[in-house]
Specification:
Helix content is 0%, strand content 58%. With 336 residues, the chain is an all-beta fold. The protein has a single domain, classed as AttH-like fold. The strands form 3 sheets. Strands 1, 2, 3, 4, 5, 6, 7, 8, 9, 10, 11, 12 and 13 form a 13-stranded antiparallel sheet that branches. Strands 14, 15, 16, 17, 18, 21, 22, 23, 24 and 25 form a 10-stranded antiparallel sheet that branches. It is globular, with a radius of gyration of 19 Å. Pfam families: CrtC, Lipocalin_9. Residues 44-191 form the AttH domain. Residues 1-25 form the signal peptide. This is Carotenoid 1,2-hydratase.
């Protein structure tokens, strides 16, 4: 998940002794190399692994945030696991401020939670997750190389869009369950402050023809759409922009926190028509360590691609905004 707004109230006094160099400025003319997944020195950065595993009856995501707030470091991590057989959703947050990052090989660690590259595979040990991730495609940079706009901030955007999952997931009340299926890894960094400055509707989808589809609709603080972007990674691992894409909202669900999330979508492009629906509505997460509310859960889709029938499976993420102080939010804008 890709969500964090850090205000002065978030930062612990103890961190003042661990200052970082001033963060770099975003330059859209200098795009990253696809395979360079290592940590950068920017105001905002995260790594994210998500997976809808229908054979295992599970959906999960893990996110690790690395923030440089005016030279002061802040780290936050979380994991969500949905047991699709019972409907139980469990959410775990990590606020340990001991973090380490390395590349190559990739190493992302916060306390006991860690993503590590070991040869051609990645291991993810975080809370209930004990997974091995084997890429089936190489890393890509999504055209045009970043999400967002100068108005709301921009984030460089890399992915490994298809990874085989093996290992186990601890399911509350049921013990360790074998995990089998496919996952998606994202790495983003830049000058955007998600949750307040920008919100979005995102999908990472595995298509039945062997390609993968990324959809991104970015909104400003007033709710106006400022960017709609999509890229398709073909079966050979080549990422190309999907021109002329539209994302038309459908059914809206009001969560227990009284936030509205659009859960059904019509996606169109000159050679694409896709209807997306959630497996279940109740997937809202209120993250205290990032002060953001969002919907994160598994989705399925049907439609056509280049005139041929296609199905889609994957995860969606919809940003609902900042938490209020009563909800445990650490940064509350005026009027909330």
């Amino acid at each position: 998940m890709r969500l964090l707004h850090v205000g002065a109230a978030v930062l612990l006094p103890a961190l003042l002794s661990a200052c970082l160099p001033a963060p770099q400025a975003f330059d859209p003319a200098r795009l990253p190399a696809p395979a360079d997944l290592g940590a950068k020195n920017f105001p905002m950065e995260w790594w994210y692994v998500s997976g809808y595993l229908p054979e295992s009856g599970l959906a999960f995501h893990w996110a690790q945030f690395k923030v440089n707030y005016r030279g002061i470091p802040y780290h936050a991590g979380h994991v969500a696991v949905t047991d699709l057989r019972t409907g139980q959703l469990n959410f775990y947050e990590n606020e340990v401020q001991q973090a380490r990052f390395g590349f190559p090989p990739l190493r992302v660690e916060q306390g006991e939670w860690r993503l590590r590259q070991e040869g051609e595979v990645y291991t993810l040990r975080a809370g209930p997750l004990n997974l091995t991730l084997t890429p089936r495609k190489g890393p890509v940079v999504h055209p045009p190389g970043y999400s967002g706009t100068p108005e709301v901030g921009r984030l460089y955007y890399q992915s490994i869009t298809r990874m085989d999952v093996a290992g186990t997931v601890l399911v509350s009340g049921a013990g360790a369950r074998t995990a089998t299926g496919q996952a998606w890894l994202d790495h983003q960094w830049g000058d955007q402050q998600p949750g307040a400055q920008a919100r979005w509707d995102w999908f990472g989808l595995h298509l039945s023809d062997g390609s993968d589809l990324m959809l991104y609709r970015v909104r400003n603080a007033a709710g106006q759409v400022v960017q709609v972007a999509a890229s398709r990674v073909d079966a050979a691992g080549v990422a190309r922009e999907v021109p002329g894409v539209t994302m038309t909202p459908g059914r809206t669900w009001r969560s227990p926190s009284r936030r509205d999330y659009v859960l059904t979508w019509q996606v169109t492009a000159p050679d694409l028509a896709l209807t997306l629906e959630p497996l279940r509505d109740e997937q809202e997460l209120l993250s205290r360590n990032t002060s953001v509310a969002y919907w994160e859960g598994p989705v399925r889709g049907t439609g056509t691609l280049a005139g041929q029938p296609v199905t889609a499976e994957g995860m969606g993420e919809l940003v609902g905004g900042l938490l209020t102080r009563a909800e445990g939010g650490r940064f509350v804008p005026s009027g909330r």
